[in-house]
Amino acid sequence: MNYKVILILTLPLALLFMFCETNLEPDDDTDDADSIAPAIPTGLALDEDASVEGVIKISWSANTESDLRKYHIYRATGADSLPLYTLIHETVLTSYADSNMEYFTEYFYRISAVDKNNNESELSTALLATTVNINPPGIPQNFTVYAYNLPGEGPSVELHWTANPEADLSHYNVYRHTSAQLTIDSSYFVARTTNNLYVDTSVEVGVKYYYRITAVDKGNWSSNPVNAKADTPLPQPSLLFPKHMSTTATRSPGYSWERVEGAARYELIIQTSLQSGEVHRIEVAQPTDGTSVSKNTGVPTLNPNTKYYWLVAVFSSDNSSANTYSDSTWVFWTPSQ
């Protein structure tokens, strides 16, 4: 019976001893006694084929230490002076691609090796590197030119395009002329922008403006220009009939307004309040000639004895948004019958 007691008591003690022994083991593979740094990395070289278009790629020989953890990459700009070097990257690989680099600039690289105890080697010998510009940017895509002359705002022309994907892109140049024979030279240059949007407010109503753009990279290489596109800030049309503050003879009145030269189409808008309550929107084609535009057929029958606001939206080119609008405060009343 005594033997059983001893066995029961010694079993927990053995487990406790095993647990304590387990927790005495270090939780990583560092060696506090290790103060020896890895060897200085060697073989630092430039990958010339990959060091193009704003990228510099370097590589080096792998260290052989069993406790090696990583490499530090240092860079200096303009001169191989130790105070100029800054740590720019850490890696376990033996190569690194440095991006968004400037052309016509000398960069210097040195690397070090770091072991698992954070012992760091001395810096390697310096490597001088530059990036080479070999390709101009592509032609900007999806270029659109849309003019506006919205009530209460000055005339403007908005240019949009899809941003170029090149990593070394610097900016876009915008050119403008009033002739379709728009050449790319300094006499027609109007703006430089880093955005894929440009709004030209130095324009006049009724003047057709042609635009072209080019993409320019950091090496000052320019793309071919986009094909010229044009639009015109159009004048606001005058409304003719129904007259302002009048009562129409019928609940299905005809409508007419001043023809706008350069318009592609119109939309006749009828609503029950100044800002909202649209009840009808009718598309009307641009007549080939004449001084006015009429819509007398296919017009809606309106409610009797009701006040309506009406206006005309004017569209140019293929823009889904109106170039300009007529006066929006014109009102008329329908008869009671």
How would you describe what is shown here?
With 337 residues, the chain is mainly β. The protein folds into 3 domains: 85 residues, Immunoglobulins (Immunoglobulin-like); 91 residues, Immunoglobulins (Immunoglobulin-like, Sandwich), CATH 2.60.40; 95 residues, Immunoglobulins (Immunoglobulin-like, Sandwich). The protein is built from 1 helix and 23 strands. Strands 16, 18, 19, 21, 22 and 23 form a 6-stranded mixed sheet that branches. Strands 4-3-6-7 form a 4-stranded antiparallel sheet, with no helix packed on it. Strand 8 and strand 9 form a beta hairpin.
List the helices and strands and how they pair.
Layout: H1 2-23, E1 45-46, E2 56-59, E3 68-77, E4 86-91, E5 95-98, E6 107-115, E7 127-129, E8 141-148, E9 156-162, E10 169-177, E11 189-193, E12 197-200, E13 209-217, E14 229-231, E15 239-241, E16 246-247, E17 255-258, E18 265-271, E19 278-285, E20 292-295, E21 307-315, E22 324-325, E23 331-333
Parallel strand pairs: 16-23
Antiparallel strand pairs: 1-2, 2-5, 3-4, 3-6, 6-7, 8-9, 9-12, 10-11, 10-13, 13-14, 15-17, 17-20, 18-19, 18-21, 21-22, 21-23
